[in-house]
Amino acid sequence: MNVTVKPKSLQNLKLYLKGGYKVNMDTPDLKYLFITGQVLELNSIQSFDSIEEAVLYVEYLYLFEDLSRSQNALKFLYELQNLRLLNLSKSILKAICVSPVMLTFPNLSKIRVFVDCYNNTPSSMITQVLFHLCGRCPNLEVVTIDELL
Amino acid sequence: MFCFSSETLTSLCLVLSMDWNVPEYVWLPKLIRYAHFTSFIMEDENSIQLFLDGCPTLKIFKLVIRVSLEDETQVKTLCMSSFSLKFLKINWEEIDHDRK
Predict the structure, then answer these.
(1) What is the pTM of this model?
(2) Domain ranges across chain A
(3) Coil vs helix vs strand at A61
(4) In chain A, which residue's Cα lies nearest the Cα of B100?
(5) Distance of residue B9 Cα from the nearest chain A Cα, in angstroms
(6) Which residue does chain B place closest to A132, by CA atoms?
(7) Which of A119, A127, A128, A132 to substitute to test the interface with B, most B CBs within 10 Å?
(8) ipTM for this prediction
């Protein structure tokens, strides 16, 4: 199923998705974005220049072992680089970690990552996560890695 | 070797029930507000001290260490020193093997 969100003046958006959705967004004035559920794709027509906070608890319905498949998640994150606060699922974080592209968040000061400890999350990934976050967020002040219940 | 280094980080909270350990190299000079680890497995006797050595301004440190009564090889000694710590809280919790 496709979801397209187009109001140019929209500042606050929450999406609760069940099933695999292809989400298209054209909301350049968005300040707050919350998405939870399963997705096939997240697409942005243009950058979120005004974005301040994003909560992306999405699970992609495929694995990121194939690098080309992580490109959609990375392209969407690239449009969110003005973020100050970011909450991420392990699924998206994995896309960041496996990417050869150094995606940076210059304004990000606070990040929270949720991991599923009972679903084969290797402990080495925690170390990788810390390494990648600190390397790509030059103004990071608060890191929280939390367990998904 | 993974380096966990940041010149800006002031707070770090890791709330996990998986086995994990401190990266081999830590340098967080601005980590001043707090570090909170739950639940931490001590695989190395020096791991906590290595972390504290890399956080020269840390004031608040809360630590929950997971222990196994069945594991004879686990670390049995915890030593730490710091010139900056003002508040320290340590808990030990027994590993629930039925959950693994």
Answers:
(1) 0.81
(2) 2-148
(3) coil
(4) A118
(5) 4
(6) B4
(7) A127
(8) 0.80
